[in-house]
Amino acid sequence: MIRAYEAEAVRAAEAPLLASTATDELMKQAAFAVATEVLRELRRLGARRSGSTVLLLVGGGNNGGDALYAGGYLARRGLQVVAALCTDRPHERALAAARSAGVHVREVLDDAGRPRREELAVLADRAGVWVDGLTGIGARGGLREPLAGVVAALEDRRAAMPDEPTVVAVDVPSGLGTDDGTVPGPVLRADVTVTMGAAKPGLLVRPAEALAGRVVVVDIGLGPHLGEPALSRLTAADVADLLPAPVATDHKYTRGVLGLVAGSTTYPGAAVLAAAGALRTGLGMVRYLGPDAVTRLVHERFPEVVVGSGRVQAWALGSGIDPADDARAEEVRDTLQRALDDGVPAVLDAGALSLAPDRLAPTTVLAPHAGELARLLSARGEDTDRADVEAAPLAFARRAAARTGAVVLLKGPTTVVAAPGGTVLSQADGTPWLATAGTGDVLAGILGALLAVRGEDLAAGRDPDGALTAELAAAAALVHGRAGARAAGGGPVTALQVADAVPGVVAALLADR
Ligand SMILES: NC(=O)C1=CN([C@@H]2O[C@H](COP(=O)(O)OP(=O)(O)OC[C@H]3O[C@@H](n4cnc5c(N)ncnc54)[C@H](OP(=O)(O)O)[C@@H]3O)[C@@H](O)[C@H]2O)[C@@H](O)CC1
Ligand SMILES: [K+]
């Protein structure tokens, strides 16, 4: 599990260590890790960058101190290091250490405190690696001047350079929404982010995540002082632990039965895709409820699907359903109400989202994309649209979970899952090729199967804050993403191919357990 902590929690965890260690000890550890990563990048870049300098971008806080100490280590290794001071109050001890190690220091603000763009451009052009120590977790809101101007000038310069430099961010890319994953203003996009003590939520959710590059977490001993994470990301090992493999005494009812209300005469394929997702994930049985024509199509593909109602451990409702079809809408509403009354978990996507009652259960998963989430909240009196959600998916997933009392799985290039009890997860396991019709139906099937096989652990109030439900939703996103990547193999992929790749993914996850 990758655990991410907000700036305040990291500060609180640092406090006892700062009190008990010598001056700048933690900062030197952090700086050493940054220097190590810079050297690794230079090695990776090889001869192309030999003789090039390292440019330190130094702000007025401890983040700039990290960069200066890192520069000192690099200068002692024989590299040409230039520190561009973007503040009139640099960290004094770190600056002295950098100077005595041979770092060249340049002031890049004029007397009025504005960035000297030409001088900055010359320094930027000469450097193969930029170390971004402008601001870290101490910054609040979008970057102010002069740092906003410094970042804008550097981004302009980078765009004009034939050979882009490698940018190594100290702790977080400067300007990024550390806690909320937003991009509130100019941000210096990084290729590598060396983050201290623990990951931060903004490094694991869009849109900020896309500007952080590869994230390296440096252990500076905060572990015992950190509490509950603000956000987590499941690894393959975590997902393997969540998947119960069948045992010899299992039969189809103990393995879990999923009830599927999906597909319509307008979108019959959605039922096939959701069934495929569920069956390929592995469960005892799928029961299908739908129109005859769709049932025939499902049966042609999957004769093992059982038609008609009966006992189930979970429901998947909504894929390919037109909420304007009154009879079908009624069926979804009735089924959902019974599930809620009986404490049976359910996943709702597509057509079922607009049919959900105001309040749901923590074992109900709503699986919207950004536009659907905006409509869901708008229907509950909030004035919001797709662009708002895409700009702050973490905040909106949380808000929707709080508002509905359900787990919310917000689909996107990174999937955000929020539970009403506060658990939040994000998964980025897929491939852009997954943005194609029908893959959402497959995801609903995968998640439906996971809810069914873990149905006993979710039944009748056993997951009161939605924490396990949220983990299963995140696990479904991982399985779906990996299946997409496996099926795509770097090229286009269709939804049914994604479903067909799921058994291989599940087998690989279980084999590594
Ligand atoms: N403590 C330690 O030993 C350790 C600390 N560590 C490191 O310290 C970092 C945190 O350092 P920090 O708390 O000094 O804050 P930091 O991120 O440098 O920013 C403060 C500077 O930014 C400025 N500023 C603020 N908002 C701004 C804005 N919107 N736009 C523009 N400027 C803005 C603010 O200016 P001011 O508001 O004072 O005018 C001030 O100059 C952390 O990320 C990690 O790298 C680790 O290595 C572990 C050991
Ligand atoms: K930074």
Present the secondary structure layout.
Blueprint: E1 2-4, H1 7-20, H2 25-45, E2 53-58, H3 62-76, E3 81-85, H4 92-101, E4 104-107, H5 117-126, E5 127-133, H6 147-160, E6 166-170, E7 192-196, E8 214-218, E9 231-233, H7 236-242, H8 252-255, E10 257-261, H9 269-281, E11 285-288, H10 292-301, E12 306-307, E13 314-317, H11 326-342, E14 346-348, E15 364-366, H12 370-378, H13 386-391, H14 393-404, E16 407-410, E17 415-418, E18 424-427, H15 439-453, H16 455-458, H17 467-488, H18 495-511
Parallel strand pairs: 2-3, 2-5, 3-4, 5-6, 6-7, 7-8, 10-11, 10-13, 11-12, 13-14, 14-15, 15-16
Antiparallel strand pairs: 1-9, 16-17, 17-18
Helix pairs in contact: 2-3, 3-4, 5-6, 7-17, 9-10, 9-15, 9-18, 12-14, 15-17, 15-18, 17-18
This protein binds ligand NPW and potassium ion (K).
The site of potassium ion has 11 residues, from strand 5 and strand 6.
Binding site for K(+): 63, 132, 174
GO molecular function: ADP-dependent NAD(P)H-hydrate dehydratase activity; ATP binding; kinase activity; metal ion binding; NAD(P)HX epimerase activity
Protein name: Bifunctional NAD(P)H-hydrate repair enzyme
Overall CATH architecture of the largest domain: 3-Layer(aba) Sandwich
Number of domains: 2
Sheet with most strands: 9 strands, mixed
Structural class assignment: alpha/beta
Broad shape: elongated
Q: In the CATH scheme, what's the topology name of the largest domain?
A: UDP-N-acetylmuramoyl-L-alanine:D-glutamate ligase
Beta content comes to 5-15%
- Unreliable parts: none
DSSP strand count: 18
Name the helicity range. 40-55%
- Compute the CA-based radius of gyration: 26 Å
Q: Which superfamily, in CATH terms, is the homologous superfamily of the largest domain?
A: Ribokinase
| Largest sheet, spatial ordering of strands | 12-11-10-13-14-15-16-17-18
Text of the CATH class of the largest domain: Alpha Beta
Protein name: Bifunctional NAD(P)H-hydrate repair enzyme
Subunit structure: Homotetramer.
Family: In the C-terminal section; belongs to the NnrD/CARKD family.
GO biological process, one term: metabolite repair
